[in-house]
């Protein structure tokens, strides 16, 4: 099935989606049909921080319409933070959406994970993944959400992660495991691979991007409707 991605939110995450989705579909023996629409990360950040949902959903819906015009049959957001307006987008989307949040809870349960530590945007950490987890407990460093969230925002916009920023994320994960009993740290921000790829944090890490990519690869193997 032809996949449409709303990308550019940020660019580094979009590149990783493309790389990993291509590899996943090839591993399944398929051929990837993919179109990417470039979004505006600064507008998304402003609307996300102000909890402005319907206007942002309309922006995404216009991009989905363009993806449909290019032949896509389903669409997905390449940002977990962007899922803050997922319900509003789903209500007006010209195409079915493939959520990055929906597969996570069952993935955690299947892997015996009962408590996760969250790294990502302020809203993702503060709302514990928008309250979407039913079988898994989520924790965050509540007293440091603003600092971690700002650092993540800076990384997403720049498309790069400095050694100091990487150290902040790694230490936050360590504390959630050591002090809050997290079984694993979830990279609930699709640009966090910039900090954790090739790192050896000393604790289990689950990249939510990978879980989403696996679901998208399954959908890509289906025939176009």
Q: Give the CATH architecture of the largest domain.
A: 3-Layer(aba) Sandwich
> Which sheet architecture does the biggest sheet show?
4 strands, parallel
State the CATH topology of the largest domain.
Rossmann fold
Order of helices and strands: EHEHHEHHEHEHHEHEH
Structure keywords:
single chain, about 220 residues, alpha/beta, Rossmann fold, 2 domains, four-stranded parallel beta sheet, three-stranded parallel beta sheet, 10 helices, 7 strands
Structure write-up:
The protein is an alpha/beta fold and about 220 residues long. It has two domains: about 5-100 and about 210-220, Rossmann fold; about 105-210, 3-Layer(aba) Sandwich (Rossmann fold), CATH 3.40.50. The chain has helices at about 10-25, 40-50, 55-70, 85-90, 105-110, 120-125, 145-160, 165-180, 195, 210-220; strands at about 5, 35-40, 75, 115-120, 135-140, 185-190, 205. Strands 5-4-6-7 form a four-stranded parallel beta sheet. A three-stranded parallel beta sheet has the order 2-1-3, with helices on both faces. The longest helix has 18 residues, at about 165-180. The N and C termini lie close together (about 10 Å). The mean pLDDT is about 95.
Secondary-structure blueprint:
Layout (H helix, E strand, L loop, with lengths): L2 E5 L3 H17 L6 E5 L2 H9 L4 H16 L4 E4 L8 H7 L11 H7 L4 E6 L1 H5 L10 E3 L5 H14 L4 H18 L3 E5 L4 H4 L8 E3 H13 L5
Parallel strand pairs: 1-2, 1-3, 4-5, 4-6, 6-7
Summarize the structure in short.
This protein has ten helices and seven strands.
């Amino acid at each position: 099935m032809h996949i449409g991605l709303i990308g550019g939110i940020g660019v580094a995450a979009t590149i990783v989606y493309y790389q990993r989705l291509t590899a996943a579909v090839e591993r399944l023996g398929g051929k990837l049909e993919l179109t990417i629409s470039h979004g505006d990360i600064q507008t998304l950040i402003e609307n996300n921080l102000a909890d402005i949902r319907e206007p942002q959903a309309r922006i995404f819906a216009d991009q989905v319409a363009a993806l449909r015009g290019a032949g896509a049959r389903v669409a997905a957001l390449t940002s977990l933070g962007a899922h803050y307006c997922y319900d509003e987008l789903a209500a007006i989307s010209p195409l079915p959406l493939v959520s990055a949040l929906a597969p996570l809870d069952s993935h955690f349960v299947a892997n015996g994970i009962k408590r996760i530590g969250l790294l990502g945007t302020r809203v993702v950490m503060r709302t514990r993944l928008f309250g979407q987890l039913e079988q898994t407990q989520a924790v965050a460093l509540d007293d440091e959400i603003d600092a971690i969230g700002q650092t993540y925002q800076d990384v997403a916009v720049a498309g790069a992660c400095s050694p100091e920023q990487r150290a902040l994320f790694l230490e936050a994960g360590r504390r959630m495991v050591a002090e809050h009993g997290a079984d694993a740290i979830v990279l609930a921000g699709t640009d966090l691979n910039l900090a954790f790829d090739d790192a050896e944090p000393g604790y289990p890490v689950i990249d939510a991007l990978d879980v989403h990519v696996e679901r998208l690869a399954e959908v890509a193997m289906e025939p176009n409707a």
